[in-house]
Amino acid sequence: MPREGVTMSDSDSRNWIGCIGWGCLTVVVISVLGIGGCVAYVYKGGSGAHAVAETYLTAVDAGRYEEAYATLGPDFVDQRGLSDFVAFEQRARAEMGICGDWRLRGTTFDREPGLSNAQLTFRGSCEDGPVTAAFALEQLDGQWVIQDIRYNEPVEPVPSVAVLCVECGGVLPPEAKFC
Fold this sequence. Notes:
The protein is of the alpha+beta class. The chain has helices at residues 10-61, 65-69, 74-79, 82-96; strands spanning 99-112, 115-126, 129-140, 143-151.
């Protein structure tokens, strides 16, 4: 006697496919929200640090030293009072001339549980030529503060990589494809 096969009715089939479809859709939505949340966290942190450094540069360029001083963190403030800070910035501006057109040239973020740091480098156009401003920032109680600023620090050169010849093992000159 032949065995009867078990078949799925059309309504059972639609329900089963619908369940898989909704399950997949749920996974996709949760994934997108998770990735979006991570991106938003990094972007929010980065834009906050950038905004603090840009506020500082704009305030100092305009001679609003108290506004710039308010962006500084405890490590910086403990080393310099307001009058020392103003003297520092006025000396720097006397050497550089009037500055403006600051553009972000480099960003590095270091995040660990309970600790967020940023290194930002800006390049500006000043009367006496281009200038760099390097900031060290730290996030304290949810707010980015400047812990150090340096003008015209030398930029670390990118280490060169030696390319070796596959035949003899000798170092190839730059741009060379073979010995």
